[in-house]
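User: Structure please.
Assistant: Input sequence and predicted structure:
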Amino acid sequence: MKRAEIKAKDLVWKAQVLKRDKGKCIINDKCRGPVTGDHIFSSKYHATRWIKTNGVTLCQRHHIFWKRQEPVLWYWAVEKKIGKKRLRELYKLIQKK
């Protein structure tokens, strides 16, 4: 797949994630500033890269700082958003190589 195709698919994925989450940070819907679509399992895993449930909307602060400083709390927030079952399903997909 060419870079332009990958970028186009990434933009569609991001738009779907932001639309589903109503453009609000899942950690705190009162956050201000820019938001982005964040992969739960890294985009390096092609099996889950463009699956909408492999993404959540985070504000810039939560994406850059909080996710890395509080990984357990971030995991719980993601689990609450998509559910344990879906999280396990995504994990199984990235295990298949």
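Strands lie at 35-39, 55-59.
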